[in-house]
Design goal:
Layout: H1 2-6, H2 17-38, H3 55-78, H4 87-112, H5 120-165, E1 175-179, E2 185-190, E3 194-200, E4 203-210, E5 213-220, H6 223-229, E6 235-239, E7 242-245, E8 249-255, E9 258-263, E10 271-273, H7 275-289
Antiparallel strand pairs: 1-2, 3-4, 3-7, 4-5, 6-7, 8-9, 9-10
Helix pairs in contact: 2-3, 2-5, 3-4, 4-5
């Protein structure tokens, strides 16, 4: 049981950039509410917005504590390609944050809030318990919500794949297999349902259509790996952060000196085209214009020399 717990996969949304940065804001908001209730009943805590005498010290402590959390999230985000975060590793990381902030609180107490009658050990333990409680509740809520989003996304993809298998009489012209970091097959998708992919550093967000709805799936994989695996498909890199399905291109328009791809789904915002990828994009469109784009051969592309 312990081994399974240690190897349990972390909900992928929990390591998303927005979740990591949002967790800092959530913890800040919750801690303010918590301390507003806790401080009046504590004879050791000096933090509080109502305590005018220690207001400056309280604000300074909050700024440094938030900086510690922010730096921790940046390191966690940057380490995803080297560390396979399991639930156990994530918990250890959070505990390390609690320990560091507790030590800082103790140091801050002895430097700026003299005289201090309690021992260092007592203050460390009390700070650890309080900070752990403050951080545990927001982290638990975020973990449960991330797990819910992950399961919802996987269920949507499962329903999509079941719909492919439910109609064996239909011959799909192109099924695309997508693999994660470990080479495990995560999803099989019909090229006709796929619109575009957006790179988010350690993840690829895949946008596809099922039953008239635009859905997404986050795959933990390198963009370069995905690009190489899809070289013979209708997918093409058009920007450092984007790959598009040329079969879904409505037209390419210019906005100033920049170019944007407008896809056939009105719910998708225009996708930027980098100058370095423009020729590759046009070559891929030309390749599929006779076959895959036979019914959409009116893709409009402004001449490259036109400004």
């Amino acid at each position: 049981m312990t081994k399974l717990y240690k190897d349990r996969e972390l909900p992928k949304f929990l390591l998303d950039r927005r979740y990591l940065l949002g967790s800092v804001v959530f913890i800040l908001t919750f801690s303010v509410l918590f301390l507003a209730i806790y401080t009046p009943f504590s004879d050791t805590s000096w933090i509080g917005l109502r305590n005018v005498e220690n207001l400056g010290a309280s604000i300074a402590f909050y700024v440094v504590a938030l900086a510690i959390l922010f730096i921790s999230k940046l390191i966690m985000y940057a380490s995803q390609s080297r560390i396979n975060f399991t639930l156990w590793k994530y918990i250890l990381w959070v505990m390390a944050e609690v320990v560091i902030i507790s030590i800082f609180y103790t140091h801050f107490t002895f430097v700026f809030i003299p005289p201090v009658e309690e021992s260092v050990i007592n203050i460390v333990f009390k700070a650890f318990g309080c900070i752990l409680l403050i951080m545990a509740i927001p982290y638990t809520i975020l973990t449960l919500y991330a797990a819910y989003r992950t399961k919802t996304e996987e269920l949507q993809m499962l329903q999509y794949e079941m719909s492919l298998n439910a109609e064996p009489s239909i011959v799909y012209p192109s099924l695309i297999n997508l693999y994660d970091y470990n080479g495990a097959l995560k999803l099989t998708i019909n090229a006709d349902s796929l619109y575009y992919m957006e790179s988010q550093d350690n993840y690829i967000k895949i946008f596809y259509e099922n039953n008239g709805k635009l859905l997404s799936y986050m795959l933990r994989s390198r963009t370069k790996t995905i690009e190489e695996n899809l070289a013979d498909t209708s997918m093409v890199r058009c920007h450092r952060s984007y790959m598009v399905n040329v079969m879904k291109i409505n037209h390419i328009r210019k906005g100033g000196k920049a170019r944007y791809i407008v896809l056939s789904n009105d719910d998708i915002k225009p996708i930027p085209v980098s100058k370095s990828y423009f020729k590759t994009l046009i070559a891929k469109i030309d390749k599929y214009n006779a076959s895959a784009l036979a019914n959409a051969s009116n893709v409009d592309v402004e001449p490259e020399g036109v400004e």
